[in-house]
Write a structure and sequence with these properties.
With about 80 residues, this protein is an all-alpha fold. The protein has three helices and no strands. Pfam families: BrnA_antitoxin.
Length: about 80
C-alpha cells in the first residue's frame, strides 16, 4: 500500500477549509423569570430629550419610563387585528 501524499493535492482547497467561518451556535432560548413582576436590569440607548422629559419630575424616572412602555404594549392591537374586547 502506498503512503498518501504529505500535502493536499490542492493547497487552495486546504487553505479555504482551514479558514472557513465558524458557525455560531444558536442563542439559548430565554425562559421567563420564575417570579412574576420581577424587574430586570437592562441597558438601552435613548435620546437625550426623552431622558430629560422623564427625569424632569425627579426621582422615579425609571418607573415612569417603564409605565410608558407598558402603556405602549397594552395599547398594541392583538395579533388577530381586532380591537374589540
Amino acid at each position: 500500500m502506498t503512503n498518501p501524499p504529505r500535502r493536499p493535492t490542492n493547497p487552495m482547497t486546504a487553505a479555504e477549509a482551514a479558514f472557513k467561518p465558524v458557525k455560531k451556535p444558536a442563542a439559548p432560548v430565554r425562559e421567563p423569570s420564575a417570579a412574576p413582576g420581577v424587574r430586570e436590569l437592562v441597558s438601552i440607548r435613548i435620546d437625550r430629550a426623552v431622558l430629560d422629559h422623564f427625569q424632569e419630575d425627579g426621582p422615579g424616572w425609571q418607573d415612569r419610563i417603564n409605565d410608558a412602555l407598558r402603556q405602549a404594549i397594552e395599547g398594541k392591537p392583538t395579533a388577530s387585528g381586532s380591537d374589540d374586547e
